[in-house]
Amino acid sequence: MTTPSGEAAITVEGLHKHFGKVHALCGIDLEVRRGEFFGLLGPNGAGKSTLINVLAGLTRANAGRALICGHDVVGAYRQARRALGVVPQEIVFDPFFTVREVLAIQAGYFGLKGDDNKRWREELLTTLALADKGDANMRSLSGGMKRRVLIAQALVHRPPVVILDEPTAGVDVELRASLWTFVRRLHAEGHTIVLTTHYLEEAEALCDRIAIMKDGQITALDTKEALLGRALRKTLCVTTLDPVATLPPALLAKVRRRSENHLEFSLQKGTDSIPEVLEALRASGHVVVDLTTEQADLEDVFLELTQRRQ
Amino acid sequence: MTGFSTLFYKEMLRFYKVAFQTILAPVVTALLYLLVFASTFKGRAGALPGVPYVAFLVPGLMMMSMIQNAFANSSSSLIQSKIAGNLIFILLSPLSTLEFFLAFVGAAVVRAMCVAVGVYVAAILFISVPIHHPLFLVAFGLLGSAALGALGVIAGVWAERFDQLAGFQNFVVVPLSFLSGVFYSLRALPPVWRTLSQANPLLYMIDGFRYGFFGTSDVPPLVSLGVVAGFLVVVSLLALALVGRGYRLRN
């Protein structure tokens, strides 16, 4: 697993892609550094899969260029594809072959046929809990097993850069946890990981930097912490000694939910102050016995960024 | 070329795993044609001087089987992989356009050869079919099946649905192979049909292949060889251009 020193894992410059009248990628610029765990998020139709397909050479861009470890995906496609492993979103398989045959064939496409690669393929089968299914036909595997074979196929040539396109869609909780343990291990071993997922808590837990796409453009690109810091609202939950019958109008406007003696305020970052809310409650005769605050999570930020212009 | 050898091996393994359907079935079909025509035209004079009609049929049926199976191998493998989505595994690999093309065509040729040998071995159990020019036989067998393998690559890349491929097969390949002199000599046709038939490149494959067996043919064998080689070059260049551009493969 080597990458040329000083090169970014992925470089994308001015990428445009049209499908008829649809402008799927509208001038994307992006750089993913070597060794990063990078999240690519966005609603359906945002252009994530198109971007991944351009990087993988499955789709040709109309303008701009994309490099994997410094190799142009069109001009130096052999080197670019050797440096990249892609786990596709859809579960696809060749029904003619067994799991071991599928992995041996995939390695062969990359010119890898020796004992060293055979050992690596067996290690992948063991790590992905597929060793006892190695001689089973692909048709006989469950959906979760097929997905694990897809991961093994993407890694069979030990690529330094791995793209996982929604790898946990439709996967049960147990398998999802084991997949993430495995992907964390890959990252710890030095692989650059690019992840797209609809489970935002996964991106929040795993990724160092995150790009959010919408309508073929990158609307946000920052570290996870900085993105979370962009959240415009935070939540204050208050429990009062007695049931709250009335509130001053200024406070009432900030209430998101209320029950007898429980109030949940949605506060604007920067303008609303927690001490001021508590002081206003005290002034209106309510005794606060408990309070909690909730910071925004990635989902809040995602929704704010992707729905702002709708 | 290790990527090529793997794809070539995989494409052969693919038809070998279903050899009942890909090898045995076409051999049986060709033998059924032979059985029906042999019993119908038993004792009738051959279409070529000194060649009994039943023996005359054998090379034609062999070549027709090669033509149809070479086309079916590359085209069905591509359309199945496209529709099932597993073509992605080849497209993600560093295989070049030429490696991709040669592997699919090579496997198509091997399948065609297996079918042809099967038909020949079964036929000579009952009929004497001598071989006069083995090199011509091999040359026409290789070039003809390679050309149809390349045509299969074109059809497999172009088709987006199974019915489109079936249309290509049923309305182009099958009629051209049936109307290429499998069952008759060019000399037996009226002048208009003879002229029209001469535009069919598959006719030269069968006529030249037959020359390899009997040492006599309707068209001079080197002319046929030139036409078949030319046809192979044309369909290969077209297939390479389509695959190289990523037409209906890399959107």
Question: Briefly, what is this?
Answer:
The complex is a heterodimer of chains A (310) and B (251). Chain A has 310 residues and is of the alpha/beta class.
Write the layout of secondary structure elements.
The complex is a heterodimer of chains A (310) and B (251).
Chain A: E1 10-19, E2 22-32, E3 37-41, H1 48-56, E4 63-68, E5 71-72, H2 77-82, E6 84-87, H3 99-109, H4 115-127, H5 143-155, E7 161-165, H6 173-188, E8 192-196, H7 200-206, E9 209-214, E10 217-223, H8 224-229, E11 233-240, H9 249-252, E12 255-258, E13 262-268, H10 274-283, E14 288-294, H11 298-307
Parallel strand pairs in A: 3-8, 3-9, 6-7, 7-8
Antiparallel strand pairs in A: 1-2, 1-4, 4-5, 9-10, 11-13, 11-14, 12-13
Chain B: H1 2-17, H2 19-40, H3 53-84, H4 88-91, H5 97-123, H6 134-158, H7 162-178, H8 191-197, H9 201-214, H10 221-245
Helix pairs in contact in B: 1-5, 2-3, 2-5, 3-5, 3-6, 3-7, 3-9, 5-6, 5-10, 6-9, 6-10, 9-10
**Helical stretch tally of chain B:** 10
Give the % helix of chain B: over 70%
State the name of the first-level CATH class of the largest domain in chain A.
Alpha Beta
How would you classify the helix and strand content of chain B by structural class?
Answer: mainly alpha
Strand count, sense and barrel status of the largest sheet of chain A are: 6 strands, mixed
Distance between the termini of chain A: 44 Å
Main sheet properties of chain B: none
Strand content of chain B: under 5%
Distance between the termini of chain B: 26 Å
* CATH architecture classification of the largest domain in chain A: 3-Layer(aba) Sandwich
Model regions low in confidence, pLDDT < 50 over at least 5 residues of chain A = 1-5
Low-pLDDT stretches of chain B:
none
- Quaternary structure: heterodimer
Give the CA-based shape of chain A.
elongated
The CATH superfamily of the largest domain in chain A bears the name P-loop containing nucleotide triphosphate hydrolases
Which chain pair shows the most residues in contact? A-B, 31 and 27 residues
CATH topology of the largest domain in chain A: Rossmann fold
